[in-house]
Specification:
This protein has a 5-stranded parallel β-sheet with strand order 2-1-3-4-5, sandwiched between helices. The chain is of the alpha/beta class. The protein starts with a strand and ends with a helix. Helix 5 links the parallel strand 4 and strand 5. The chain is built from 6 helices and 5 strands, in the order E-H-E-H-H-E-H-E-H-E-H. The longest helix is centred in the N-terminal third of the chain and has 14 residues. The protein has a single domain, classed as 3-Layer(aba) Sandwich (Rossmann fold).
Length: 139
């Protein structure tokens, strides 16, 4: 079981479903949410400003939508990699998106921090696969 997961999505229904699934399946003890990339960057900024131990307080997994207003997932990833990824090497990203654009799949592979690309909506099957990979240390 992961200690903490951060879900980043502008769709409140997707956030609610993801949060419920993550908790009910025993995938994560705690689930935090952000409504876009900007909100997620603020989350990490506050983590580093307010925590005595940001590495242990950080989420182990970020479930990230890529199509969001204000700051999309790609813009978040660019900023996250520069500002936080090196300081949080245990935190991985799973992109959760409804996109079918092959360019998005290729683009995701360019980020070392991205562990998987999963199609929306999040499902028990997706979480089972992610859990198996996590437990086998394949993230």
């Amino acid at each position: 079981m992961m200690k903490k997961v951060l879900c980043v999505d502008d769709d409140s229904i997707s956030l609610t479903i993801s949060k419920l699934l993550l908790k009910r399946t025993g995938f994560a003890e705690s689930v935090d949410t952000a409504v876009d990339g900007s909100d997620a960057l603020e989350y990490f900024g506050e983590l580093f400003n307010n925590s005595n131990d940001p590495q242990s307080d950080a989420p182990e997994l970020i479930i990230l939508d890529i199509n969001m207003p204000v700051m999309n997932g790609w813009e978040f990833l660019e900023a996250y990699v520069v500002q936080f990824a090196a300081r949080l090497p245990q935190t991985k990203v799973v992109i959760l998106s409804s996109t079918i654009d092959p360019e998005d799949f290729s683009r995701a592979k360019k980020y070392e921090v991205v562990a998987r690309f999963v199609s929306k909506p999040l499902s028990v099957e997706n979480l089972t696969e992610l859990r198996e990979e996590f437990e086998a240390n394949k993230f």
